[in-house]
Amino acid sequence: MRPPSASRGDGACLGEAAQRTPSLLRAWRVLACEPRQAWSIATAWIGGKRLRARQRLAAAIGIDHRLALPPRAIPNGEDAIPADGAILVVGAERLVPGAVARLRHAFASDPSLQALYGDGLVQDGVGGPVHPRLPPAFDPDLLLAVDYIGALVLRRGALPEPVPTHPVEAALRVLETHGAAAIGHLPGLLTVRPGDCDAPTDAVAARLAAVRAHLDRTGAADTTVWPGADGVLDVAHPLRETPLVTVIVPTRDRLDLLKPCLESLRAKTAWPSLEILVIDNGSREEATLAYLRDLERGGRGRVVPYPGPFNFAAMNNEAAKQARGRLLVFMNNDVEAFRPDWLVAMARHALRPGVGAVGAKLLDGEGRIQHGGIVLGTGGLVTHSHRHFPGDAPGYLSALRAAHGVSAVTAACLMVEASKFQAVGGFDAERFAVDFNDVDLCLRLNAEGHRTMVVPAAILHHREAASRRWTAEASARHSREVAALKERWGPLLAQDPHYHPRFDPGLSTHARLSRTEAADLSVRRAG
């Protein structure tokens, strides 16, 4: 049976297909094999630290979406579209009571706004469960693959007649005419799609035609697009050249990690010109030193000596200065490639003029999602998107299938053009020696107009922090870097524009709804 996202034709997974909840019996089996984890969870719960206990349980047994609401969640009544033509609704969804007043106020408050979309409720068939559609701020890349808008509300005169009848086509027209900043997300419930509202049989074809026409109109005729799984449109930007790529891998001994990492790069990377730089941060073990000598003698890589205290940012900055590649890939020594197309998938975006840092989908040792982008303001400060979800999960709004904008990505595997990296000064080695240097880099690139993107088609394994050791000194340094991140990026940390405030901030992202309504319902825009 196809998931409802496929039958609707919008490609937007709302959690319907991810109900693979571990049973209580399975949870007990997992914890029985991990008594230390079980004890840690139990002591946290008994000690009143319920949030910590829930997070540890999710890490131990995995997590999935729990977003379905009962049919009674759909409000009664409907707001009539005003007869004065001040606003025009594009799409089949109906406005909820009070929506028109909110829309009028938003447009009146900001004359530059030409189009708005809000949150929605989507029912799976008559009498079926109801799923919330909680979109991000406007993301043109995600819109090419997934209709996360549902219904688009236009200001009078935003588009010339005849106005498109499909919300994706209308949004793309507004994007072309007025720019991305003219389209806003208005948080709060605006529209509903009841179970008796059938999607057109040609919904995917209509989206495909709209996207194809948009690409042709905007000088991107060589970008290919085709229908993918469950209504998601697969988009491939052209790769007009394959420049030299430098992969930078820091290490201090840990040959058990470094060797599989480097060997996977050579065996599982389909790219004609690859340079590997290994930063040696004071390795002492003879086996590691012999391996590094053999690496250079065999012409399989270069070693950049960087003795002294571990400063991830500084050592990567130094290696970047010595790199010959047009594209830089910063990679942890506990990352392994296993699909040859990972670098091609990332380079298709990193070489685009408006894109800065590009991240990959990383899987942990259990085959679950370890990284699907970085979300600000959750998990206490920042967290990885969809962490602990099944490795093959589509992700909320199909975010684990479609390339899309995010606030930041992890430097465990981060690609960026060398010129863009140097233009913003590289990593900040003084304030973020070890932690958050990747977040800070991405946010500075974003501020310069270079969007950060995550590309789920690039998939690698990551045994996170396998080479890290926590000490009292490391803990104190981490606290200083937390304070520095809050000082520099405090307003952004309050609410990530790429993440909806209605999700529970205490668990893996996109997993549960918050029990409280978002306090700020003002219009959100990306960038």
UniProtKB/TrEMBL annotation:
Pfam families: Glycos_transf_2. It comes from the Bacteria. The lineage of its organism: Bacteria, Pseudomonadati, Pseudomonadota, Alphaproteobacteria, Hyphomicrobiales. InterPro entries: Glyco_trans_2-like (IPR001173), Nucleotide-diphossugar_trans (IPR029044). Residues 246-360 form the Glycosyltransferase 2-like domain. This is GT2 family glycosyltransferase. Coiled coil: none annotated.
